[in-house]
Design brief:
The chain has no helices and eleven strands. It is an all-beta fold and about 120 residues long. It starts with a strand and ends with a strand.
């Protein structure tokens, strides 16, 4: 089992910045992928960005150049720095941990990000 605890969501004006954090605990393997997804009301949950344990990153086109994902493997923590936020970034953001050995994805409880225009 893996537990994920997220923090850092909130309300911000358009053009502002927020940083999300997610700390993983439990059965953590050295090789894994962690990431962030988001889900707006009435929409499906979509990938925002993910990062492999070796550092390779992947971003949704809609956030490239504005969001940066990073991780601290010593703390099993992943971060999402969000700059130049837009109202369309408003969603519940979920942290994910992907176990590459069994293909299972664990999810955090979600944190609300609201961007006002």
């Amino acid at each position: 089992q893996v537990q994920l605890v997220e923090s850092g969501g909130g309300l911000v004006q358009a053009g502002g910045s927020l940083q999300l954090s997610c700390a993983a605990s439990g059965s953590i393997f050295s090789i894994n992928a962690m990431g962030w997804y988001r889900q707006a009301p009435g929409k499906q949950r979509d990938l925002v960005a993910d990062i492999r344990s070796g550092g390779r990153t992947n971003y949704a086109d809609s956030v490239k150049g504005r969001f940066t994902i990073s991780r601290d493997n010593t703390k099993n923590t992943v971060y999402l720095q969000m700059n130049s936020l837009k109202p369309e970034d408003t969603a519940v953001y979920y942290c994910s941990y992907y176990n590459v050995y069994n293909g299972y994805t664990y999810w955090g409880q979600g944190t609300q990000v609201t961007v006002s225009s």
